[in-house]
Design brief:
Elements: H1 32-44, E1 48-49, H2 50-60, H3 69-82, E2 85-90, E3 93-98, H4 100-108, H5 110-134, H6 154-169, H7 175-192
Antiparallel strand pairs: 1-3, 2-3
Pfam families: PadR
Region (Disordered): 1-25
Protein name: PadR family transcriptional regulator
């Protein structure tokens, strides 16, 4: 059966759209298209049963995102009908595997898939950080000075929190000031996306 077409979300949040600080729309964590791509990415690592896929998503996010069977199985059915996955019956269960068409579909959305998996891993690390903070525990650092649970250094966490607070305090700034802040953030983003440099090109 030919694959159905979908209009996937852009890799960055569209201006003016509400969302949390992970870039997800308020009221939901992932769209149906997001879930389809993440399931295909997991199937790229090997054939799986639906329950194994649910467990894998939960483990990657440290429990933050664990789709219900009512979400995962319709997704798998859609992927099978679209020709992106095959299903092999094993008793009362089915084992799903990626097809060549599914691999091509993943490749055509590779940037989006990478961002989704990065968000999933990020929120998992954040959940671990929050749990420890609520327990008033101190991070255990590795040889490079990073938290063994999250991989974050104390400097990274402090800078991230300082930026969020600075933006919060300037949420009601005048348009000219907002544009000045936006230009600063754009330069910082370019620098972050260019590893090995401290400053981004103007």
């Amino acid at each position: 059966m030919p694959a159905r077409s979908h209009s996937l979300h852009t890799s960055r949040r569209e201006p003016g759209r509400g969302g949390d600080d992970h870039g997800w729309a308020r009221g939901r964590k992932f769209s149906s298209e997001d879930l389809q791509l993440m399931v295909l990415a997991l199937l790229r690592d090997g054939a799986s049963h639906g329950y194994e896929l649910i467990k894998a998503l939960g483990e990657r996010s440290q429990g933050y995102y664990t789709p219900s069977p009512g979400m995962i199985y319709p997704t798998l059915t859609w992927l099978e009908e679209a020709g992106y996955a095959t299903a092999q019956s094993e008793g009362s269960r089915k084992r799903y595997a990626l097809t060549a068409a599914g691999l091509d579909h993943l490749a055509s959305h590779e940037a989006r898939v990478a961002l989704l998996l990065a968000k999933l891993a990020h929120v998992g690390r954040k959940m671990a950080w929050i749990r420890r903070a609520m327990e008033a525990g101190e991070p255990e650092l590795d040889a490079e000075g990073a938290d063994r649970q999250t991989g974050w250094t104390p400097e990274y966490v402090a800078a991230h929190m300082a930026l969020r607070e600075a933006l919060l305090l300037r949420g009601g700034a005048a348009p000219a000031e907002q544009r000045r802040i936006a230009a600063i953030l754009a330069r910082a983003t370019r620098a972050i996306e260019a590893p090995g440099t401290d400053e981004a090109a103007p």
